[in-house]
TrEMBL record:
GO BP annotations listed: monoatomic ion transmembrane transport
InterPro entries the UniProt entry points to: Gram-neg_bact_OMP, Gram_neg_porin_domain, Porin_dom_sf, Porin_Gram-ve, Porin_Neis
Keywords: Cell outer membrane, Ion transport, Membrane, Porin, Signal, Transmembrane, Transmembrane beta strand, Transport
Record-linked SUPFAM superfamilies: Porins (SSF56935)
Protein's name in the database: Porin
CDD domains given in the database record: gram_neg_porins
GO cellular component, one term: cell outer membrane
Subcellular location: Cell outer membrane
Domain of life (superkingdom): Bacteria
């Protein structure tokens, strides 16, 4: 839905779009300490959401832009976050120029997550086969608050992005800050991105609690897809180094006597395809995490799915994935919105965008 308005005094055209996604289905998980789990859940392929975005033409190729987006749970109607933050998904405002690019401030996606969901993964970071099950996407790797983002215009298929997020900890300007950048290329059948994300893990002193210095989390990702028409091929390679660079989504999902240890030095690989089949597409991927620490807690995942469009905005889906953990690793098969409970999961559901 687009709501338009014209201000005679400002001589500027503006409009606000109301948009969203409603995604729900049946999930069956097994293999974890919780046993067999069957549930109706929300946001399997993409997190259900309600959003508002707007643009105002300021003249001379310059526009004001904003977005406010809230995650919701279709299964019970609640806000889809533990803090009851209204616009937990996106909340930003900025300026956009046709010649100079855009600059926005607020809560925004990282280049790291955008590259994974938009380029690297045939499952689009959703369903049972989600790249999020093994690649590093938890917390601020997906979205970060207090962020300033610059995105350049596209020139001959090339573009760039820069992100700086303030930690906003009193007495320490670098504690908790986050930096990201991306180099993008999209032209014809080729889409490629090289991105880097750096999170400062320090905490500033608070009262009698002293400051804490910690290793930085550094994530680098190369994501590529190429459309051969008869098949679309996907590839991703990532390096994860430092504290919290490769978190385990569920602390000890399999009830090990010794809980799995998050890697501080890992390599991640994804190879996938999207194949037209009838009116829909068959999706398949193989993902691996190679833990380079002495713990050697590796994991691999196989995934298969099918997306069947009922219209331009409505589709049904089915997906299955299985993870093999090694040497006490504890990765789980989740989906776009949940971390999962075991090493196997099956999804079937429906989604509608508006």
């Amino acid at each position: 839905m687009v709501i338009g308005a014209f201000s005679a005094s400002a001589q500027a055209q503006s409009n606000v779009t109301i948009y969203g996604l409603v995604d729900a289905g049946l999930v069956k998980e097994s293999g974890g300490v919780a046993g067999s789990v069957t549930k109706v859940t929300s946001g399997i392929g993409g997190q259900s959401r309600l959003g508002f975005r707007g643009v105002e033409d300021l003249g001379n190729g310059l526009s004001a832009v904003f977005a406010l987006e809230s995650g919701i749970k279709v299964d019970d109607g609640a806000l889809d976050n533990s803090t009851s933050t209204l616009f937990n998904r996106q909340a930003y405002v900025g300026l956009k120029s046709k010649e100079l690019g855009s600059f926005t401030l607020g809560r925004q996606y990282t280049m790291l997550y955008n590259a994974m969901s938009q380029v690297a993964d045939p499952f689009g970071a959703g369903y049972a086969g989600s790249i999020k099950n093994l690649f590093a996407t938890a917390g601020a790797n997906t979205r970060v608050s207090n962020a300033m983002v610059y995105a350049s215009p596209v020139v001959n298929g090339f573009s760039g992005e820069l992100l700086y997020a303030l930690g906003e900890q009193a007495g320490d300007s670098t504690a908790g800050r986050q930096i990201g950048f991306g180099l993008n290329y999209a032209q014809g059948p080729l889409n490629a991105r090289l991105v880097y994300n750096n999170r400062n893990q320090d905490t500033a002193a608070v009262g009698t609690t002293p400051a804490k210095k910690q290793d930085e989390a550094k994530n680098t990702l190369l994501a590529v897809n190429y459309d051969f028409t008869v098949v679309k091929a996907f590839f991703a390679y990532a390096t994860d180094k430092g504290l919290n660079s490769s978190p385990i989504p569920v602390a000890n999902a399999f009830g090990y006597k010794t809980a799995p240890k998050p890697s501080t030095d890992a390599r991640d690989i994804l190879i996938g395809v999207s194949v037209p089949a009838g009116p829909g597409n068959v999706l398949a991927s193989y993902t691996s995490k190679d833990d380079k620490t002495v713990n050697n807690q590796d994991a691999t995942q196989w995934a298969l799915g099918y997306i069947y469009p009922l219209s331009k905005r409505t589709s049904t889906y089915v997906a299955y994935a299985k993870i093999k953990n090694k040497n006490g690793a504890g990765y789980t098969v989740g989906n776009n919105n949940e971390a999962g409970t075991g090493d196997k999961a099956f999804n079937v559901g429906i989604r509608h965008s508006f």
